[in-house]
């Protein structure tokens, strides 16, 4: 579902964003005070004009000092009456590009099974903003949300491949897919092992865009549904497992942002998605099995529900063989990350301080929060079992997100720099510009930081 700015300014109605406690625009008159307008986030005050018409509106932004993404309160402008609206006189502290993105993000609707597409007010792009770039960012966000929101019955590995092929065609990228037993011939044994019990065959999706410049490789976890395997999840933990391909959805959304905004120019970009369903059948991999990875390291399976790191490991090993300057993995990987930081703030891991600082600053600039966590070397011993090189699920339950990141780092060796994001991919309750459901995390932060991370 596209979100674009209106292009015809004729007869556009003025919309004034207002911080709580600030003086109201002089042209709004005495009506807002009489109507009890308090500039709470997303609060709208319609300004009556002559002959019963409208002459504009105010929208509240809340407290100027409010942290984080509440500043996307402008997304609630979609509750205005139909028509074309023009944001006027942006107050200090509200970035024009941030305001523009908020106006588009508020238009997202997931309508595959119910409801209708957005049919509300349209907005002119605020002055001084690159409208095409903001539209590309919104389009990438919408793609990610659609992919995550679609149930596994309609978004299995085959359908995820079809979505990747459609995107590749749209942006002029090359795509290659290795499927089923060909994964064994191609030396992707752990992707095959995790996905072989499902009706839809496992596969590795490989997309390339651009042929010159430094290389960025993005690996997105594409577990389209996760039963937990033979270590089956309880129903309460399985309810949201359609979102376990959130890393893949975010990677594809980021690729769309990069391509359509022009930010991909001057780079070689590769996206790798191991797409599987972790199912239960007679040929499912078992607790206690020892798998040999693409890299040759052996992995003892102490929990079949720790499957994401297995499929990522083969894909990361492939990526590292090409020695990209920057390698990024995106994965809905551990519940431990949610316990530590909740659903809104994904941790990221990076050994290079300059790269980590650039990504943290990009996250702040884009209002796409991330928080750096350590690759804590003393915990390496926790991922080393007695009968294999690595353990996919260390006992004890401590430092689960860190040990998962350390596991992945073993397979990323050879890349110039490695960054891992342990995302959630889901908005538990509605917020401005972020309805309940699938959500991209980290993509806008990476987009903002890329010119510094990979100059």
Automatic annotation (TrEMBL):
<dbReference type="InterPro" id="IPR011356">
    <property type="entry name" value="Leucine_aapep/pepB"/>
</dbReference>
<keyword id="KW-0031">Aminopeptidase</keyword>
<dbReference type="Pfam" id="PF21337">
    <property type="entry name" value="Peptidase_M17_N_1"/>
</dbReference>
<keyword id="KW-0378">Hydrolase</keyword>
<dbReference type="Pfam" id="PF00883">
    <property type="entry name" value="Peptidase_M17"/>
</dbReference>
<dbReference type="GO" id="GO:0006508">
    <property type="term" value="P:proteolysis"/>
</dbReference>
<dbReference type="InterPro" id="IPR048816">
    <property type="entry name" value="Peptidase_M17_N_1"/>
</dbReference>
<dbReference type="GO" id="GO:0005737">
    <property type="term" value="C:cytoplasm"/>
</dbReference>
<dbReference type="InterPro" id="IPR043472">
    <property type="entry name" value="Macro_dom-like"/>
</dbReference>
<keyword id="KW-0645">Protease</keyword>
<comment type="similarity">
    <text>Belongs to the peptidase M17 family.</text>
</comment>
<dbReference type="InterPro" id="IPR000819">
    <property type="entry name" value="Peptidase_M17_C"/>
</dbReference>
<dbReference type="GO" id="GO:0030145">
    <property type="term" value="F:manganese ion binding"/>
</dbReference>
<feature type="domain" description="Cytosol aminopeptidase">
    <location>
        <begin position="303"/>
        <end position="310"/>
    </location>
</feature>
<keyword id="KW-0464">Manganese</keyword>
<protein>
    <submittedName>
        <fullName>Leucyl aminopeptidase family protein</fullName>
    </submittedName>
</protein>
<dbReference type="GO" id="GO:0070006">
    <property type="term" value="F:metalloaminopeptidase activity"/>
</dbReference>
């Amino acid at each position: 579902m596209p979100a674009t700015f209106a292009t015809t300014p004729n007869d556009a109605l003025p919309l004034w964003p207002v911080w709580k406690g600030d003086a109201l625009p002089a042209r709004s008159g005495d009506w807002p005070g009489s109507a009890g307008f308090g500039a709470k986030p997303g609060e709208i005050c319609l300004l009556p004009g002559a002959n019963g018409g409208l002459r504009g509106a105010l929208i509240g932004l809340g407290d100027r000092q409010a942290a984080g993404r509440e500043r996307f309160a402008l997304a609630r402008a979609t509750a205005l009456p139909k028509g074309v609206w023009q944001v006027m006189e942006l107050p200090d502290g509200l970035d024009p590009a941030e305001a523009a993105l908020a106006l588009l993000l508020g238009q997202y609707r997931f309508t595959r099974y119910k409801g209708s597409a957005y049919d509300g007010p349209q907005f002119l792009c605020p002055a001084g903003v690159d409208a095409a770039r903001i539209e590309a960012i919104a389009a990438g966000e919408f793609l990610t949300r659609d992919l995550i929101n679609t149930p596994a019955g309609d978004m299995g590995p085959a359908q995820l491949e079809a979505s990747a092929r459609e995107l590749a065609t749209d942006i002029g990228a090359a795509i290659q897919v290795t499927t089923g037993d060909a994964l064994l011939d191609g030396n992707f044994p752990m992707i095959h092992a995790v996905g072989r019990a499902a009706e839809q065959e496992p596969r590795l999706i490989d997309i390339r865009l651009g042929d010159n410049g430094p290389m960025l490789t993005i690996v997105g976890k594409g577990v389209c549904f996760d039963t937990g395997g033979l270590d089956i999840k309880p129903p309460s933990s399985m309810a949201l497992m359609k979102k376990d391909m959130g890393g893949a959805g975010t990677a594809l959304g980021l690729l769309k942002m990069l391509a359509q905004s022009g930010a991909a120019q001057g780079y070689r970009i590769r996206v790798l998605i191991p797409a599987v369903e972790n199912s239960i059948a007679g040929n499912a991999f078992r607790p206690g099995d020892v798998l040999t990875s693409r890299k040759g390291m052996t992995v003892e399976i102490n929990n079949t529900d720790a499957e994401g790191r297995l499929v990522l490991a083969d894909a990361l090993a492939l990526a590292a063989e090409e020695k990209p300057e920057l390698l990024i993995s995106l994965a809905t990987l551990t519940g431990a990350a949610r316990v530590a930081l909740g659903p809104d703030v994904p941790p990221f891991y990076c050994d290079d301080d300059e790269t980590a600082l650039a990504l943290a600053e990009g996250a702040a600039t884009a209002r796409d929060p991330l928080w750096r966590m350590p690759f804590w070397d003393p915990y390496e011993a926790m991922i080393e079992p007695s009968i294999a090189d690595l353990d996919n699920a260390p006992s004890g339950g401590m430092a689960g997100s860190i040990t998962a990141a350390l596991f992945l780092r073993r397979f990323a060796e050879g890349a110039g720099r490695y960054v891992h994001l342990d995302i959630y991919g889901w908005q538990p309750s509605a917020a401005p510009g972020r309805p309940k459901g699938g959500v991209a995390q980290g993509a806008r932060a990476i987009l903002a930081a890329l010119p510094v991370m990979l100059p």
